[in-house]
């Protein structure tokens, strides 16, 4: 009974918290905490995470317009099996989101990178993992198979396409997968990653506002002040639905670290 009452109360709050409109192209909207390793939230971690996990079923923000462009679909991208490209973008969607990219943050960043550098110069790969709710209750906040796949994807790019500049991102449970993959990857593999960004990061507090084994200067964690998951909980607040406003600044962060991009056959 306690579980049902607690979960129902949180879900009722979420029903009124979801935004009705999101501008995916402008960095306007609610103020953001952009964590670079020097800022940490101090909120306490509730004991009843098992009850709260049911709220993560609704963590997908409203779908952004399909601006991903070919050959990346609106919610799925599998380009690691294709030819090497100057830029590789790997993205992990949140719990229950569609495809392997979701239909909002990941595809929108991919589209922006393609527009900046040309579609033929950007390879996009969504993390192929279940993204099931129960993954949030695993030790590292992501299911073991998803972590292993992320590590394998990073290693694949480093081995197969060593000249490709890699940028990675993750939302919600996908952010936890990123943290765990960085923790489990070799230093040489991570040396190919030039920037990493997360949104609604469920491992923000646990990892001290940083990504394991990765430079703070190349890291950006977007945390809405109204999003409790950034404080070490898995209770979802209204801010967990509002990260589309951070697509533009996240893309700019990637571009700043990618620098000048040349076709691989020009090097």
TrEMBL record:
Keywords attached to this entry: Disulfide bond, Hydrolase, Secreted, Serine esterase, Signal
UniProt subcellular location: Secreted
EC number: 3.1.1.74
Superkingdom to which the source organism belongs: Eukaryota
InterPro entries xrefs: AB_hydrolase_fold, Cutinase/axe, CUTINASE_1, CUTINASE_2, Cutinase_monf
Disulphide bridges, residue numbers: 84-161, 223-230
Signal sequence region: 1-17
GO MF annotation: an example: cutinase activity
Composition-biased stretches (Polar residues): 39-58
Segments for region (Disordered): 28-81
UniProt enzyme class: hydrolase
Gene3D superfamilies noted in UniProt: alpha/beta hydrolase (3.40.50.1820)
Active site per database record: 172, 227, 240
UniProt cross-references to SMART domains, sorted A to Z: Cutinase (SM01110)
The family this protein is said to belong to: Belongs to the cutinase family.
The protein's name in its UniProt record: Cutinase
Organism (species): Myriangium duriaei CBS 260.36
